[in-house]
Amino acid sequence: TDAAIQHSATHLDLSAQSAWISSEELTPCIFEEYDGIWVGPGGPHKNFEKTLETLKFARENQIPTLGTCGGFQHIVMEMARNVLGVKEAQHAEYDPYASVLFITPLTCSLKGRSMSIDISPGSKVYSYYSASPVTEKYYCNFGINPEYVDAIRNSSFAIGGSDSEGEIRILELPEHPFYLGTLFVPQINSTAGDAHPIVDAFLSAAGRVCRRLR
Q1: Which pairs with CB-CB distance under 8 Å and at least 24 residues apart come from 26-34?
Q2: pTM greater than 0.90 (yes/no)
Q3: 183 touches 69 (CB < 8 A)
């Protein structure tokens, strides 16, 4: 992840500094110092609620936000509770016996698999790739519960990409400067000579925030 940030910073001729912050230490005050947030792979988080609170603040205050793999799952959880209003929504990794599970184990693990993704025409993420389909790599065992796909489709979020079976793999918030979640791990495909377009777009958005505020 750090390498992918530097690949894109070099590609965009930007100066970018990143820091890893424990979910225990997350508060909206971090945005007094940082211009964007990237919630990366891995879980469970030490403090699930603080992660969701920080994502909510970033969503509501136009702060560039990227969630990959586990980060995508947390974006879905924040949306479920605070956009769809399903306050009891839960993630199976945190509470597998909850009555309302928006994130559940995948029928077949995607860990280590590379798969084709159809990018939605007209989406913001299509403007980043300028191509479809694309191939990306996964490291996840959890995804969106199919029971709630229709609710997500009817929300303010848009589906930016799906796999060959129509499963949601990218979510974006069209009215936000940059608010994007990918179930795959784009940073894996970034190299020094070929920065990933999603990371490019994230850093570009964070750079605009930096210029505006400073």
Answers
A1: 26/50, 26/51, 26/53, 26/54, 27/53, 27/54, 28/53, 28/54, 28/57, 28/61, 30/54, 31/57, 31/58, 31/61, 31/63
A2: yes
A3: yes
